[in-house]
Amino acid sequence: MISWFEDLRYALRQLRKSPAFTIAAVVTLTMAIGANAVVFSVLNGLILRPLNVPQAESLYVIERASDKDTSQSYPDYLDLRDRNHSFDSLAAYTLTQVAMNTGEGPSLIWGMESSGNYFDALRIQPYLGRFFNRSDDHGPNSAPYIVLSYAYWHSHFHDDRSVVGRTVQLNKHPFTILGVAPPEFRGTVVFVSPNFFVPMVNHEQVDGVNDLNDRASRWVFMVVGHLRAGISLAEATADLNSIGSHLEKTYPKDERQAGFSLARPNLLGDQFAPGVQAFIAGLMLLTGLILLAACANLGSLFAARAADRSREVALRLALGASRTRILRGLFTESVLISLVGGAFGLWASVVFLRWLYGSISGHQDGIKRRGWAAHYRPRGVASSSNRALCRAGYVFAGCSAWASARHAQQFRL
Fold first, then answer.
1. Looking at the structure, do residues 259 and 206 belong to the same domain, yes or no?
2. CB 3.0-4.6 Å disulfide test: which of 130, 157, 263, 367 passes with 270?
3. For residue 385, what are the contacts with CB-CB under 8 A and spacing of at least 6?
4. pLDDT tens digits for 356-372?
5. pTM for the whole thing?
6. Which phi and psi (to 5°) does residue 102 adopt?
7. Domain that residue 14 falls in
8. Residue 307 falls inside a structural domain
9. How far apart are CA 151 and CA 194, in angstroms?
10. Angle at CA 58, nearest 5°, toward 54 and 64?
């Protein structure tokens, strides 16, 4: 333990003696690991683990098998919900834009129309008040209720807990506030964070059209649900396809090729899977090249430093220092640089992502609000950074130690 502490002190002294080298190495590593962490965080939020809901591993989206389209008609959703035996419950939702008036004049905001069982199916608990549920649905325009997102409640009602029971206007129709969603729940659409949730049966009041009974109109954006324990994907798909066969026979004009498949909830199910996969592969290749370029640059820096220190290493060998002790000291220097660069890279990536999320969410009442940045997880950034800096640091350390010993041996010869 004492010898390692001495190696650490000696490494710090050597790095202080070469500020230009130290700064160049740390900045290079910071940029590489910071970029790697940012990319991983975006992929983690958009593709790998996009939805922050309980038991997300059992959540699946129903698609049309023919074209991987996630949209359904409302009557089809009702048939899928009531006839399937594979899901605990199936919820439907779609995005909408309305003029909301809370008493200070109307403003255009994004929200979500969802089935009455939406929150129950997703196993979400309210932060304040209650959620609407299936028992509130009694036909078209029968449930004029609204649930606010935590962000909208915080920014527009300033955490006023008496907001429950208050009436707001949506497209000049009165809706009663039932409750507030929890802070960590930002809906089930990756690229938009809705400001409110309203029952889908009030579609006519919200969107101005009544196509709840139109089987040919696929205006429902997605249907999702938790797969029951013990049910395989093949069994669930067969169950859904039996429902599709029934729909084809019963409604031949509206239902053609009504086969279904299951997908994990991400950007848009599997509809754009080839493009998304190509994008992911390209992005990961780019980050790998960035890290590889950083390794190459740092390798050159360490090689030049090793050549400059060959006289010092040769002298220490001549004075009786063991090769192991010298290699350990050089290894300590390299690991120290990798740790400092990794720490700065992690800090820079978190600061950048928070700035990005703040700049995006500043448009929360506008048409262009995007929610993907809200899904970044600092733990994911830290995990990515730690893996990257450990790999890079140990590679640099080993190369540096080997190069220094090699130059020292040549100098002695």
1. yes
2. 263
3. 33, 34, 36, 37, 342, 345, 346, 349
4. 666 655 444 433 344 44
5. 0.69
6. -100, 10
7. 2-50+273-412
8. yes
9. 9
10. 120
